[in-house]
Design brief:
The structure is a homodimer.
Chain A (H helix, E strand, L loop, with lengths): L2 H14 L13 H11 L11 E6 L2 H10 L4 H5 L2 E8 L3 H17 L6 H15 L6 H13 L12 H25 L3 E5 L4 H7 L6 E10 L15 H4 E3 L1
Antiparallel strand pairs in A: 1-2, 2-4, 3-4
Helix pairs in contact in A: 2-8, 3-9, 5-6
Chain lengths: 243, 243
Amino acid sequence: MQSNDSIKALVDIIESRRSIRLFDKTPVPGEVIEKALDLALLAPNSSNLQPWEFYWVRNPESKSELVKACFSQAAAATAAELVVCIARTRTWKRNCEDMKEQLEKAEKQGTRIPKAAWLYYRKIAPLMYTQGRFGVLGLLKCIGFFILGFWKPVSREPMSSHDMKIWATKTTALACENFMLAVRAFGFDTCPMEGMDSRRVKKILKLPGDALVPMVIAIGKRREDGVTLPRIRGPRSWFIKTI
Amino acid sequence: MQSNDSIKALVDIIESRRSIRLFDKTPVPGEVIEKALDLALLAPNSSNLQPWEFYWVRNPESKSELVKACFSQAAAATAAELVVCIARTRTWKRNCEDMKEQLEKAEKQGTRIPKAAWLYYRKIAPLMYTQGRFGVLGLLKCIGFFILGFWKPVSREPMSSHDMKIWATKTTALACENFMLAVRAFGFDTCPMEGMDSRRVKKILKLPGDALVPMVIAIGKRREDGVTLPRIRGPRSWFIKTI
């Protein structure tokens, strides 16, 4: 595809995406959700450690509980489908092991893997993302890097369990945006909801303690009155700066 | 545009986007960066409080300092352009005021603004996002909601300055993904870098204390050997679940 068509298509998708508060009763084909989820997982992600999870809640009982956990807001209550987006701070070790295995397989099949990648997944990533019991290792790293930082550029994050939450949420959000754009490209609509009871959402999905709920995404076809506010942004100069 | 062409274009953009470690010397037209930044600002964002900022670093001296702060990694050193993505936890008040003003303007021009929106921007948003000196208000809200939460679904975040960091970073990441996809749609490439000295980056840009640096994005045209690893993802079932 020519970049001219490509950018036109993307502009159309991004500009026509709005957070929809009221959906009509049109069902969303399962393939739309499946494909949009697959595209979500192609987002760039921190060190390829994939700290994301997506729960497509189809079971009517869980779905009705989930709507309540989203304060029964109209976007949730009228949505054809609901997807819960989860960020995990403790799955990176499993994913790092998997990454090494897949790299080994690729190398055996003839792909050249740079030495730096082996070093990264064998030594650096475990050191960077392990914060230790009560965050002790993180604190030691923080002090060490702070001192070293007087002489040379050093990593400043993640150095605590809290930094890990920011880290996992950030990567998950990149995937969420892919998902919402993909749903829009299929001609359907979304509403990302942060207004929800994350504790109840975790209970409904039986999620472990390290799971965070960056957002729940409502999916459906917009009703004509589904956009409730004009699209407003502050002055461009507040947000885009050239230096 | 038909949704068939639309999804094909998006699939092509998302699948061909890779994190590029080596760029060739092709310059990136200024309009590409400008338009991609405009599209970034159309991402959905929490309560429309727009806690993001994007610094396009063109000044050669600052750029060279920035490359060093990114550990002089090849992606930064060979990039035609560098954009620093910033999340702010203290600009929401200004943006909330602006939102009210723009809603008032829209109403005067005949747009119907729902009562809920007035209530939200006048009362609820300030209550939700103010954490108070030393986070005291946040703590009180946290306790209050925790107790109320035994009876009904309640908000659990943001209740601390730390939650505010997660909040601002999450929204900024949504915009970052729009930006990277737009650059790709124009036929150019990106590398999102979290491996950098955020303290030094903030110093170079003279940013205030509440600014976070979710990522620095390198932009350019990929060299043939610019993709250094095969695209690897863990088993789909680890990340996509249907319940």
